[in-house]
Amino acid sequence: MNCLTDIQRDPPRFKHGEAPTKCTLSDCDLPHFARGFCKKHHARFLYHNKKTRRTYKDPNEIKIKEDICEIVICSKRGMGSKNIAIVDREDYEKCKDIVWCLSLGYARNSDVGLLHRYILGIKESDNPIRIDHKDMNKLNNRRKNLRCCTQSLNGANADAPKNNKSGYKGVYWHKNAKKWAASIRVRYRTNHLGVFENRKDAATAYNVAAIKHFGEFARLNKI
Predict the structure, then answer these.
(1) Alpha-carbon distance 18 to 37, whole Å?
(2) CA gap 84, 63 in Å, rounded
(3) Average pLDDT over residues 192-212
(4) φ, ψ for residue 22 (rounded to 5)?
């Protein structure tokens, strides 16, 4: 049979006594179940109405490149675009036998949890410890890109929300003053930084406050 990614809406039907002894997919040696498939691939065909290369239960493809490993991750349904999770070469043995799937942009396994927490040996129940990705790439799980922090510091290393209309983090239009205002949220409390004639001045005020409160975790506005 051809490549697993080929769509076959009408798999062959075999006459009595002519059915193969094993799955007709080239990389599967499981016993034949129905319509040329083993039981696992037959169930997939019925679910997706086409052959799929993998589901979230199949082992991940791992590519070793110098000092890093790239883990190919598909969505839980095994469909759509593939994502690449990056780990250090030294963590290959630790991660290679675990099946990882994509969950809210992170690499995750139902038994061990999130990949970045698993690498650092920090369980999800270990609150209030959070793991911050320095470059904000949820799939870049190299140790040099991970750092432990609080929920507040983790939120500091983030861009402005999508509904932000000023173009700068911590900057918004003050309707009453009819000027641009700046504010920063520290330890679950919002601190107002003043009102300004233009957005850049307000963004600068936010940057100064962010460095003061968050240090290296501050995600600054580009002015």
Answers:
(1) 14
(2) 10
(3) 96
(4) -140, 170
